[in-house]
Write a structure and sequence with these properties.
The chain has 19 helices and no strands. The radius of gyration is 31 Å and the shape is elongated.
């Protein structure tokens, strides 16, 4: 009888397999227990650190800064920084500066800079937040390298810290970056640049004339998200473009009457999406005489054009409620009258 057909060999192999599985299961159980013990020990250690330092930080926040600070243990640094960053995110003004003073006196600015290069991913994210709150210019180069990493969370956190440290330099660096990185949501870009609106507006004004039509719509949308008023020459060039995405993005950015003539011309554009945005822009910057132009759009074949024209009529600053009622009474197109009535009802309900 060969070993391959020997029943005893099969039984022996099964026993050894079962034994090995049991040993591995026991080892895994031991590892899980050890990890849970380590986690609980770390939680207790962190709780002790917070219990020790929370009263001191609270005292600093209310202006009762102690003359001397107790030493910060090595194991207390990370829980302290997490608490410190949480407080920084919920406070403003002098309280922030008081917390910064505590962190600098404890040498945590240098510690956080060290974490940027050698810490784990969570530690590096925390360090970037800390250094941003501290306005630490010494961390600039390390944060720039961090911002170039492929991990979006890491790079965006570094960019947030950079704009906190130096808004002008950060805006000059980030505006071209946010235009190029189309995979980043506009809301994220605007949220970061919101801390440097004026430098970002200047950077956008410099960049826009140099951009091709493939990048121009995103740049204009960034300006829109920041509520930036762009130079009239930049907007006029966008509104006269042959690219519909550029024209639409330009119309969304119209905030002043310098481009009113261009907006009026686009009310008759062949693309209904352009007519929609032209109507909205006219509502923002139009004059009393533009009411007739918007009334004409109430008879447009596209529902969205009619709806936005009705909304724009309500936004025109020169028209009173009585003027709108008179316009509605004079409409002979039933669909136009219904649309204006709907817009007026929605406005009254808000």
């Amino acid at each position: 009888m060969t070993p391959a057909t020997n029943p005893d060999a099969f039984i022996s192999a099964a026993l050894w397999t079962g034994f090995c599985a049991l040993v591995l299961t026991l080892l895994l159980a031991v590892q899980i227990i050890a990890m849970r013990m380590l986690l609980r020990r770390r939680q207790r250690r962190d709780a002790r650190a917070l219990e020790r330092w929370r009263p001191l930080l609270n005292a600093a926040v209310v202006g009762d800064m102690p003359a001397t600070l107790p030493p910060l243990g090595r194991a207390e640094r990370l829980p302290f920084l997490r608490l410190w960053a949480h407080l920084q995110g919920s406070l403003r003004g002098e309280a922030n500066e008081a917390l910064n003073d505590v962190a600098r006196r404890l040498g945590l600015d240098a510690y956080a800079r060290g974490l940027l290069g050698r810490g784990s991913r969570p530690a590096r994210l925390l360090a970037a937040l800390v250094l941003g709150h501290l306005h630490d210019r010494n961390a600039w180069d390390d944060l720039l390298r961090m911002a170039e990493q492929p991990d979006n969370t890491v790079s965006l956190t570094a960019l947030w810290a950079l704009v906190r440290i130096d808004p002008q330099a950060a805006a000059n660096y980030m505006v071209p970056l946010f235009i190029a990185r189309e995979e980043w949501a506009l809301s994220l870009a605007a949220g970061i640049l919101q801390q440097a609106v004026e430098p970002a507006a200047a950077a956008l004004a410099r960049e826009l004339p140099r951009l091709g039509e493939d990048k121009l719509p995103r740049a204009l949308r960034i300006a829109e998200a920041l509520h930036v008023t762009l130079p009239a020459g930049v907007l006029k060039a966008a509104l006269s473009s042959a690219s519909m995405p550029v024209v639409i993005a330009g119309l969304r950015g119209v905030r002043t009457p310098e481009t009113l003539a261009e907006v009026r011309m686009l009310l008759a554009h062949e693309d209904w999406q352009v007519r929609v945005q032209a109507a909205r822009a006219l509502g923002r910057v139009g004059e009393r005489g533009d009411a007739e132009r918007l009334v004409t759009l109430l008879g447009d074949r596209e529902w969205w054009v009619r709806y936005r024209a009705a909304e724009a009529l309500l936004e025109l600053p020169a028209l009173s409620r009585a003027d709108l009622e008179a316009l509605r009474a004079g409409l002979t197109d039933r669909f136009a009258a219904d649309m204006l009535s709907q817009a007026m009802a929605e406005s009254a309900a808000v």
